[in-house]
Specification:
With 503 residues, this protein is of the alpha/beta class. Among the domains are: 1-189 and 199-226, 3-Layer(aba) Sandwich (Rossmann fold); 401-500, ANL, C-terminal domain (GMP Synthetase, Chain A, domain 3, 2-Layer Sandwich), CATH 3.30.300.30. It has 15 helices and 26 strands. The strands form six sheets. The protein has a seven-stranded mixed beta sheet, with helices on both faces. Strands 11-12-13-14-15 form a five-stranded mixed beta sheet. A hairpin with a 2-residue loop joins strand 19 (374-375) and strand 20. The radius of gyration is 23 Å and the shape is globular. The mean pLDDT is 89.
């Protein structure tokens, strides 16, 4: 289906820039939809010359550049599966992911090749081109005829997206034609065209790009790329192109709001702020709505859910918009279940289970992991939540993050949502530490607000005591210059726990 959409987009949006590289050291350039389609045909011929065909696995260890898109489309033309590896993966993570994939070809750059020695297949080193005419030049056959169309197969694998590894080693969630087609339908409302300008806020290897490229092409959107995400450059693009939506993950929105000139701009063109990746603190939601003059939608999803799950409505009331993740999006069912897989009582915390026709088909080459995660057609997210009286979902953390203090369960996210409201707290992550008496106790890892005095443990406990039971209050405090983050920009709890062992 990627090929069908690419072909139609090349006709309907022929001269529209599909992707634009914004300020780069060697200048900016763009590729139109017609040029993109032609480049994908030429790259497909080059991949075919290297033995790539239906069922082959091509691993892309590349930055988020136009070459990535060309090669993804090229592989799909041949019926091959594209697996994206986050360029921020460490060499050990690359080796682990490639060991799972067992690819037929790895395409990478000289700067990212470390860790790609774990495979016995060919490793092709390419350097991203500086103009549309040189996109992946080493892999393309210039002037190649269009690749013959493959028979329609809704279950043919198209892409593999690796999880962030925030609670373990990355695993590859795979998607077929049918999921990508359904995601395009849900995100575009079934309409064709009307894309305007937008930003790519995540790495291309992320599920937020891999499964949503069909939607981007179907709308004819011009997507702007940055060599690295920078708040000042992003603000310039939003204002210059009058983008209707501000998108990203919560830390990116927070960095935008910290720009000294953020209030100097007219944001009448912004109609929505759409944020995923991780929970957004209430203060961030409130401030963003105030600055941009637009509603803020929190989107909860996962690599395994296809990037579609639960979200707050743009017209949600303050309580729902600030303190929940909203309700299931169209086509998504959600339930809370206990460890035995049975529904929990109303108001109780349980594991969030999702079911939809866009969730992953499974983990690539991991039937055991797939069986643990997909049960009777339901996706076990590993996240804990409760449903409030109004019917909105409120996250409480992850099942593996919960700890037990003196026989009572403590959910770190619940504690974090209170502590982050302290005026001296910029960021906070709560982890557990073994304790001889209580079994486990909470440790608040805090980044203080720039220029504000660091809070003491007693101050934090007193602040939270009016909203949290005694057993939920942190009993240790670690002041951090910053919180470690993994390749997906989520707080790296494993690193915090490992570091805590030295305290």
């Amino acid at each position: 289906m990627l090929t069908d959409i690419s072909r139609r987009a090349a006709i309907d949006f022929a001269d529209t820039p599909a992707f634009v590289t914004d300020p780069q050291p060697d200048g900016s350039w763009s590729i139109t939809y017609a040029e993109l389609d032609q480049a994908a045909d030429e790259a497909a011929a080059g991949l075919a010359d290297r033995g790539i065909g239906e069922g082959s696995v091509v691993a892309l260890v590349l930055p988020s550049v136009i070459d990535y898109v060309v090669l993804f489309l090229a592989a799909a033309r041949l019926g091959a599966v594209t697996a994206g590896l986050n360029p921020r993966f460490r060499p050990a993570e690359n080796r682990s992911a490639l060991g799972v994939l067992r690819p037929d070809l790895v395409i990478t750059t000289s700067a990212l090749a470390d860790g790609c020695d774990a495979v016995t297949c060919p490793v092709e080193i390419v350097e991203p081109g500086a103009t549309p005419a040189s996109v992946s030049a080493a892999l393309r056959v210039d002037g190649a005829a269009s690749v013959p169309a493959l028979p329609d197969d809704p279950e043919r694998p198209v892409c593999i997206c690796f999880t962030s590894g925030s609670t373990g080693q990355p695993r590859g969630a795979w998607y077929a034609n049918r999921q990508l087609a359904r995601i395009a339908e849900l995100d575009s409302g079934g309409a064709w065209g009307g894309g305007g300008h937008g930003l790519s806020s995540t790495q291309f290897a992320h599920v937020g790009f891999m499964t949503k490229l069909p939607w981007m092409m179907a709308t004819g959107r011009t997507t702007h790329l940055l060599d690295r995400w920078r708040a000042d450059a992003v603000l310039d693009l939003i204002v210059r192109h009058k983008m209707p939506a501000v998108t990203g993950v919560a830390p990116q929105i927070a960095l935008l709001l910290q720009l000294p000139d953020i209030t100097d701009h007219d944001f009448d063109h912004v109609k929505a702020i759409v944020v995923g990746g991780s929970a957004s603190p209430p203060a961030l939601v409130h401030r963003a709505r105030e600055i941009f003059g637009a509603p803020y939608s929190i989107r909860y999803s996962s690599t395994e859910s296809g990037g579609i799950g639960i979200g707050t409505a743009l017209d949600a009331d303050d309580d729902e918009a600030l303190h929940t993740i909203g309700r299931p999006r169209p086509g998504v069912e959600a339930e809370l279940r206990n460890l035995e897989g049975h529904p929990v009582a109303a108001g109780d915390v349980g594991e969030l289970w999702l079911r939809s026709d866009v969730m992953m088909s499974g983990y690539w080459n991991d039937p055991g992991g797939t069986a643990e995660t997909i049960v009777d057609g339901w996706l076990r997210t590993g996240d804990l939540a409760l449903i409030d009286p109004a019917g909105a979902f409120r996250l409480q953390g992850r099942t593996k993050e919960m700890y037990i203090r003196g026989g009572y369960n403590v959910y770190p996210m619940e504690v974090e949502s209170v502590l982050v409201d302290h005026p001296s707290v910029a960021e906070v992550c709560v982890i557990s530490r073994p304790d001889d008496v209580m079994g486990e106790v909470g440790v608040a890892c805090v980044v203080a607000v720039n220029g504000a005095p660091a809070p003491s443990l007693n101050e934090l406990r007193a602040f939270a005591a009016t909203r949290l039971s005694h057993h939920k209050l942190p009993e240790r405090l670690r002041l951090c210059a910053e919180l470690p983050r993994n390749a997906s920009d989520k707080v790296d709890r494993r690193q915090l726990i490992a570091d805590d062992a030295h305290f």
